[in-house]
Amino acid sequence: MLDMQTEREAAPAPEPLPDPEKEIHVSGHSRKKKRTLEELCATLPVEERVVDLPDDEKVNANGHAVTCIGQEYIRTELVMERATAKVVKHYRKVYADHEPEQETWYSEVFKPVMLPPLLAHSYASASVVTDVLMKKYVEAMPLYRQEQMWKRMGVALKRGTMANWVIQVADLYLRPFWKRIRSELLTQSTIHADETVLQVLKENGKPATSESRMWVYSSAKRADIQLRCFEYRESRSGKWARTFLEGFSGVLITDGYV
Predict the structure, then answer these.
(1) What is the dihedral sign for C-alpha 11, 13, 18, 21?
(2) Span 213-252, pLDDT tens digits
(3) 3-class DSSP assignment, residue 2
(4) How far apart, in whole angstroms, are the C-alpha atoms of residue 211 and residue 78?
(5) How many angstroms separate the Cα of 11 from the Cα of each of 8, 87, 148?
(6) How far apart are CA 46 and CA 44, in angstroms?
(7) What per-residue string of b and e applies to 100-133 under the rule 16 or more CB within 10 Å gives b?
(8) In sequence order, what are the residues at sequence separation of 6 or more whose Cβ sits closer than 8 angstroms to the Cβ of residue 233?
(9) In contact, 175 and 183? CB cutoff 8 Å
(10) Which of 36, 51, 94, 250 is in the most buried spot, having the most CB atoms within 10 Å?
(11) Can you give the pTM of this predicted structure?
(12) Kind and range of the H or E element at 233?
């Protein structure tokens, strides 16, 4: 152990304080031009709001009407308006042909064809489920936070309900795309593969502290088409890679895991 004298000797000498009388020269540099609001928001719709005088103030002290001679620009703002939710009840007109009724005592009924719901026996619309998916997977907003957001809007939408929507939509609408991407990926000459740890809560047959895996398979950087395929599995067993890559006859690039 060093004594205090040795510590003082071993410590680096403090840097001298700058001399306030000494002139400091800074080399010139260019600064990027600041972008205007019009450039930042070129794709946004523009709304003009004009503030007008109340009707009772459009007269002078003698009661004569004043004349508008134009309007002056005040400022430009970037405005975020809160998203609104509403309940839409769907109806359809029903028509009947009463002419056959005189002979058969029955009328022929005519109804327009209705588009099926996004999910059977559910009040979920495409717009609401799309919003849930975008917030969860693009903006990284967990469902429990989305539940709080809906609560502030006056809607008691539970995270369990949204989770069921995500699962059902993935199975019904997104899984065919995943299968198509996988089949195209297996035709590539080179595939990159890797897996990473993922923890899943309340998974059947597994404690919440156990580790699962998310596997990813990717086309090469120089491939004509860029493809990514993610697959959840409960372990890092090599059998999952063999199952996914069944039929592939190219080069597989991965780490040293057997």
Answers:
(1) positive
(2) 999 999 999 999 999 999 999 888 889 999 999 999 999 9
(3) coil
(4) 45
(5) 5, 72, 55
(6) 6
(7) eeeeeeeeeeeeeeeeeebbeeeebeeebbebbb
(8) 195, 212, 213, 214, 215, 240
(9) no
(10) 250
(11) 0.69
(12) strand 228-233
d(CA 49, CA 69): 17
The residues with which 11 forms a beta bridge, in sequence order, are none
Residue with the larger pLDDT of the pair 87 and 97: 87
Task: Give the pairing type, strands 95-97 and 108-110.
Answer: antiparallel
- Distance, CA of 175 to CA of 186 (rounded, Å): 17
DSSP state of 205: T
Q: Do 225 and 189 meet the contact criterion of CB atoms below 8 Å apart?
A: no
Predicted confidence (pLDDT) per residue in 16-53, tens digit: 555 555 566 666 667 777 777 677 778 888 889 899 99
Q: How far apart are CA 28 and CA 7, in angstroms?
A: 43
What is the DSSP-derived secondary structure letter of residue 191?
Answer: E
Instruction: Find where tokens 């007269």 sit.
Output: 59
- Paired residues of 231 in beta bridges: 215
Burial class (CB within 10 angstroms; exposed 0-12, middle 13-18, buried 19+) of 194: middle
Pair 192, 248: CB distance under 8 Å: no
Q: Pick the residue with more confidence: 103 or 55?
A: 55
The residue written with tokens 């039929």 in the block is: 247
